Amino acid sequence: MPGTVYRGVGPRIAYVRRIARLTQTQLACSADIALGTLRKIERDERGVSDDILERIADALDVDLTRLLPGGGRPDDRVHQVMPGLSAVIATYDCPNDGPIRPIAELRSAVDKAVAWRLGAQYLHIARQMPALLAELSRAVHTGIAGDRAAAVRLLVHAGRAADAVAYKYGARDLSARLIDLLRWAAPRTQDPLLDASVAYVRTEVFFAAQEHVAGLRALERAVDAVPRRNDVASLAARGALHMRAAVIAGRAGDIGSVGTHLAEARILGDRVPESVYGGTAFGPDSVRTHEVSVAVGLGDAYVGRALDLAREWTPPPELPAERRSGFFIELARAQLWSGRPGEAFASLKVARRIAPQQTRTHKWVREDAATLRRLKRGDAGSLTNFAEWCHAAG
After folding, report:
1. At 54, which CATH number?
2. Which of 13, 81, 317, 323 has the fewest Cβ atoms within 10 angstroms?
3. What is the reported pTM?
C-alpha cells in the first residue's frame, strides 16, 4: 500500500516554523531531511510523504493535524487500512487468487514487519500488512507444497505485527480476530515455542476485557506447555510468559502470583542474553521494564517501588523502542501519582522521542497529558502542544 503524498502543506509548514523561531536549516537538521528538500516543500514545489511530514511535525513539536490540509487526523491513515485487514481475516482459509513471491522474499518482508513492530513504526506496518497477509494466506493454502510450513510460521509473525497496529489504535475486535488467526496457525507448525509467543500476545484480549484472573490462568497453562529444555530459545519463551504473567497478576491484585512470576522471570532472564526471541524481547533488561509495569499496575501503595527502580536503572538504547517507550510511559504515571508532574511530563517527552507513534496512541499518555494540562504546571505552552499532539481531552 503506497504512502500518502500531501500537497499544499508547504506554506503552513513555513508559517509554523517561523512561529517556532526556527530557520530552515535548523528545522531540516532536526527533522533529518535535506535542506533543499525542505525549501522545495515550503515553496510548494514538491509533495510531502507521510514519513517526512511526521518528522517535520515532531521537529516543530506540534500535532501533525496542524500541518495537514483540511485538518485530517493522522490516525486516519491507519484506520483507513482496518477494513482491508478485516477482509483478509475473513478469507484466510479461502484466499483470493493472486501472486505469491518466493518464500525467501516473503521471509524478508515479514522480518521487516517484525522490526517495525519492535520499533513502534505502526504506519509502516499498516501500509504493507493487508497485502502481505493476503499473500501469506495464499502461500499457506495454494503455494508450493514444500514452502507451506514456512508460510504458516511467517503468517503468525506477520499477523502479530498486524495485531500490534489494531490493538494500539483501539480496534480491539479486529485485534481479537487477528489473535484467533494466530491461534489457528501456530499449532500447524508443531512448534511449542511459537505457541508460547501467541499465548503471550493473546494476553491483550484479557487486558482489553479486564479479565485479569482468566488471563493469568491462560498464561500459567502456557508456561506449563513450554518444553523444559535448557536451550536459550526455550528459556526465553518461559521467561517471557512469566514476565507477562507478573503484569497481569498485578492487574488482578494477586500479590502472591506477582512475586512468584517475577522471581521466575528474573532467574530465566539472568540465563539468557537480552535479545528478541520468537518476536518477543526478553532478558535482564526486559524483566526490569516489566518490574516497573507491575509496580504501576498494583497501584498507589507500590508506586514508590517503580520510582526506586527507575532511579537505579533506565532502559539501554539496545532495547526495542516499543519496550523503552513503554517504560517511560508507565514511569510517567508513577511520577504523576507521586505528585511530581514536572518529572512526569519529562518522562512523557522521552517516550515520545523514542517511539512517537506508540506514545501518541497510548491511553495512559492521553489521560496523563490531560491531567497535567489541568494542573497547569511547568511550561503551559509546551503542555498544550503535547496534549494536542496526543489528542488528550480537556
Report:
1. 1.10.260.40
2. 317
3. 0.84
